[in-house]
TrEMBL record:
The keyword Cytoplasm applies. This is CDAN1-interacting nuclease 1. GO terms for cellular component: cytoplasm; nucleus. It comes from Nomascus leucogenys. The gene is CDIN1. Its main location: cytoplasm.
Length: 105
């Protein structure tokens, strides 16, 4: 089993709105649990970010739990205000990921 399912795999299972990746085992980023990752090849300005929140991110949160959005070209820092509600914003892939280790008994 892979550690994450990508958008194509999720659509094949019948999901209509999907993040880029859903993690099979959640990770923690800066103390927040992450179940999905969405990558945007754009700058996160107020107008586009609020549209994404409404059209995509809250749907992902409702279906899959908390997640991470990566804006490749940065974002307005004040938009990163939903961390406690479960949507984190980053400008690059985080390097401080905490993974869950489990063994098979």
């Amino acid at each position: 089993m892979s550690a994450a399912e990508n958008e194509d795999q999720l659509r094949a299972k019948g999901y209509d709105k999907t993040p880029d990746f859903i993690l099979q085992v959640p990770v923690a980023v800066e103390g927040h649990i992450i179940h999905w990752i969405e990558s945007k090849a754009s700058f996160g300005d107020e107008c586009s970010h609020h549209a994404y929140l409404h059209d995509q991110f809250w749907s992902y949160w409702n279906r899959f739990g908390p997640g991470l959005v990566i804006y490749w070209y940065g974002f307005i820092q004040e938009l990163d205000c939903n961390r406690e509600r479960g949507i984190l914003l980053k400008a690059c892939f985080p390097t401080n990921i905490v993974t869950l280790c489990h063994s098979i008994a």
